[in-house]
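Handout, page 2. Input:
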Amino acid sequence: MVEGAANLGLLYNRFAMQGLPGGELIGKGLADLARNEETIESLLVSIGSPKLRALGVSLGPAFDNPEHRLYALLGQEHGDNAHGQYNALVRLLVSYERALACSRP
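Output:
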């Protein structure tokens, strides 16, 4: 395992271990975003990047137009159910952001 990959693993585990709703999803999204991989998780983190940064989360550049890109990716995977999947993911992101805000001193 290269050093960068080890650091991404630590980043993923840090967010997953916080026990916050969606922590594993956000951790994976941060790791994917750091590798510039366009995944459901990295696009979700890109959507939440302004709020996550305001809450002290360090992350690299977000993808442009993440809302549209996420919806298109979900459409490929879920077809007619993309809208429901999109809304569920955004609700999970918002829950994570709120929980993180409450857990900060």
